[in-house]
Amino acid sequence: MHIRTDFPYETTHEDLYIPLADGTQLYARIWRPVTDEPVPALLEYLPYRLSDWTAPRDWQRHPWYAGHGYASVRVDVRGHGNSEGMPGDEYDATELADGVAVVHWLAEQEWCSGRVGMFGISWGGFNSLQIAALAPEPLKAIVTVCSADDRYDNDVHYMGGSVLGVDMHAWASTMLAFVSRPPDPADVGDDWRDMWLRRLEKVEPFIHTWLAHQTRDDYWKHGSVCEDYGAIRAKVLAVGGWHDPYRDTVLRLVEHLDPGQVRGLIGPWSHQYPDRGLPPGPAIGFLQETLRWWDQHLKDKDTGVMNEPLLRSWISGSHPPATVYETLPGRWVGDAAWPSENVAPVTYALGGGAQIVRSPQQTGLDAGRFFPFGNDADLPPDQRDEDAKSVCFEFPVEDAPIEILGRPLMTLLLRMDVPRGQVIARLCDVAPDGSSTLVTRGALNLAARHGRDRAEDWPVGEAEYVNFELNGIGHTFPPGHRIRVAISSSYWPWIWPQAGSAGFTLEAEGSLVELPVRRHTEDPGITFGAPEQAEPLGVVHPVTLDEQRPERLVVRDVAKGEWRLEVDPRYGGTRVYPDGLEFTEDALETYTIQQDDPLSARARSDWTIRLHRPEMSWDVRVETRSELSADADDFITSNEVVCRDGDEIVFHRTWEKRIPRTGG
Asked: Is the pTM of this model over 0.70?
């Protein structure tokens, strides 16, 4: 990583409030180049608190953009951080309308040229897309990283129509802890506690809303730009990583937007900006790449960025299974259109007789993290244990490598003796030594087989064909390896098990997988600069003598037939900021299930957050507990928030709620 300190422009920054029409003010930090000439503005807009949680990341890129002649702006969503107002649901109409208002406010400033870009990763990438679909006139270009165009089937809530047990609950729990944090008195003054208490009275666990919409209804269509790609007028650079769950959005955007409007980039990365150097690499000079995008579309410079292939993709080479890779083998390829003339479906018939698929409920414990962040235990380990709990089909790779790029398609003929169930398919690369590396996977709630907008019971005892795609991937299977398709009926804790699920019969003779095989093309010479960033903020991570608990720990109670997965998400630990703020967070997620009982599934998340300013004698704590279970009829949620100012408990609330099981 090159830390850059010399730029074409000197820079300055300030914190201020951006006024909205209803009188609410949003907290903002603006870095600007020192110049008398108006410059374009770049906006990153999200709820994750610019004064502490994202501050280290913000300082890597916003000053860098300012040094290259842009006003780079970081704004907290209403009701979060130091912004006024009450918090709402994610990407709700108020959040998006506020974002549109901020775009217009920026364009109207005397230091702005009137042209605005938006960028962000995850939440910030989501609302960049969604605000672009509202088409405010000053918004000319966006860079959306690790985001989704479909809030139902390509986000953190549902997968293939099934509840994402691993992350719907975990992320709702995380946001409950995040939204319960107070404003900072160093920024908002003595009113911080009143603001905090007013905000806390409006807090509602997201899990209640998300579980109330178990099929793809109007709630999920809101903010899903796939409903109308044509509404987007801005130029779109869509970026993803093969180890990020949102990477299929890049493929859909380059397919559905006008080729003169969009470019796609998919690397080997996890849920991170591609310049941060977090595993898996290789990292790229992403800030330089985005600068080409901004200069082209906000300053009318011909940077050649629109001469790049429509889609630039990393094709990973075969690699042994591991939970972390510093870098992956592979190469960059370019495709001028998507779907690409270089890619064609190749069918592999599963073949054979009827196979009973009845996986134990703990199948899926080796799935890895839904959101890999570059930690040591994020990625799936050797899949041989998972494969043993599945029905597997293998296809040898003989004389030449088989390179795939895109989304494999499963067509399965199933027979089921109960009305509800799930099917999960994994594609693995099996080496001559028998090790099995997960390549990609997909899932289907069989009640959603005719559409994600409905839930239809299976006709008991009858056979039907079902079709579903696996997540997109770029991968090369070398000669001497085997392509393995593994079919299971459970995948805990990613997929919440269906009540009464008893597996199914797979009629292998009528079933197949289509692989998107890409013909080998010559090296297109795609290159990127080395990663560089602005000078870091200077956050200190105090050394602790306490032994860290494992990132992922699996515990088996043999007598009870119970399995427990404990996950430490490693979001940050303790940090001391240059302004004296001490910030500590600790989280533990726990998932338990009995191997023969789908109704035994339990998820729990515990959070503790401390914000401390010794010089101000300010010391606050937030503690949350969130639990999710289910019986045959209902999901059962339990949430608790305790907030302390010093030793005083200033807020304590619990929520207990039963939500009928309908589709998910």
From this structure: yes
Pairing of β 618-630 and β 597-613:
antiparallel
Q: What is the pLDDT of residues 579-593, one digit of tens each?
A: 999 999 999 999 999
Distance CA 102, CA 132 (A): 13
**3-class secondary structure, 353:** coil
| DSSP symbols for 50-70 | TTTTSHHHHHHHHHHHHHTT-
Task: Give all strands (DSSP E) within 219-377, no chain letters.
Answer: 235-241, 262-267, 311-316, 330-335, 343-349, 354-357
Residue 122 backbone class (left: φ over 0; alpha: ψ -120 to 50; beta: rest): left
For residue 173 the two structure tokens come to: 């729990």
According to DSSP H, which parts of 324-393 are helical?
A: 384-388
Helices 55-67 and 286-298, axial angle in degrees (round to 10): 50
Q: Tell me: pLDDT of 545 over 60.
A: no
Distance CA(80)–CA(96), nearest Å, equals 15
Per-residue pLDDT at 262 exceeds 70? yes
C-beta of residue 119 within 8 angstroms of C-beta of residue 153: no
Q: Other CB atoms closer than 10 Å to residue 645's CB: what's the count?
A: 17
Rounded to an integer, the average pLDDT of 658-664 is 93
What is the DSSP-derived secondary structure letter of residue 508?
Answer: G
Q: Strand 354-357 to strand 504-507: parallel, antiparallel, or no bridges (unpaired)?
A: antiparallel
Structure tokens at 363: 């199948």
DSSP 568: -
Q: Is the pLDDT of residue 201 over 80?
A: yes
Q: Cα separations (Å) of 28 from 44, 192, 485?
A: 10, 17, 49
Amino acid, res. 209:
T
Task: Using alpha carbons, list the distances in angstroms from residue 473 to 250, 266, 403, 438.
Answer: 11, 9, 10, 11
- Mean pLDDT across the chain, nearest whole number? 96
Which two three-digit tokens encode residue 537? 């903020």
Give residue 564's pLDDT.
98
The pLDDT assigned to 546 comes to 63
Alpha-carbon torsion (231, 118, 56, 247), positive or negative: positive
What's the average model confidence in pLDDT over 627-642?
A: 97
Q: And the tokens for 171?
A: 């992320």
